[in-house]
Amino acid sequence: MLFSHILVPYDGSNPAGKALRKAVELAKIEAGIHLTVAHVINLQPFIMGEMAFSQPESYQEQLNEQGKEVLNRIKSTIEVIPDANVVILAGSPAEAIVDYALNNSCDLIMMGSRGLSSMREWMVGSVSHNVIQHSHIPVMIFK
Asked: Which of the pair, 23 or 45, is modelled with greater confidence?
């Protein structure tokens, strides 16, 4: 078996959907693959000049609920895989993805090239680019 644990960061974007569909295809073909789909809630403070703004706790709870809704939409897609689960991560998206992969014995990350928050990513750098730069395992990017 080439890969045993695939991590798919998922935000509901088209590229993330392509990555998820390919990961499910691979897990159907290759028995024994564990599939984890992760939604990352970005809790980083927004920095403008010398000021930093953090989200209030109520906003964090709202983001958590939205994350659960996003993952609920794909449960029917992954239920065909016997060893699949979903997780919600919090923090810097790239850092959370790389840390989860490292701490949970993932051996492949399959993710979209661009997420839903393209304006912020354009200003501070692409999440997928940062994952590629910091991951110690292979990363497969989908457009």
From this structure: 23
Instruction: Give the lowest-confidence range in 43-47, 97-101, 114-118, 119-123.
Output: 119-123
Distance CA 20, CA 56 (A): 31
Instruction: For residues 20 and 63, give the distance between their C-alpha atoms in angstroms, rounded to a whole number.
Output: 21
Please tell me which of 9-23, 42-56, 123-137 the model is most confident about, judged by mean pLDDT: 9-23
Helix axis angle for 93-103 and 127-134, nearest 10°, is 40
Q: What is the pLDDT of residue 2?
A: 87
Count CB neighbours of 41 within 10 A. 18
Residues 135 and 110: their CA atoms lie apart, in Å, by: 12
DSSP string, 63-78: HHHHHHHHHHHTHHHH
Q: Give the CA distances from residue 105 to residues 2, 13, 53, 82, in Å, rounded to whole numbers and listed in that order.
A: 14, 26, 34, 18
And the tokens for 30? Answer: 């290759």
CA distance 48 to 86: 33
pTM of the model: 0.84
Q: Are strands 46-48 and 51-53 parallel, antiparallel or unpaired?
A: antiparallel
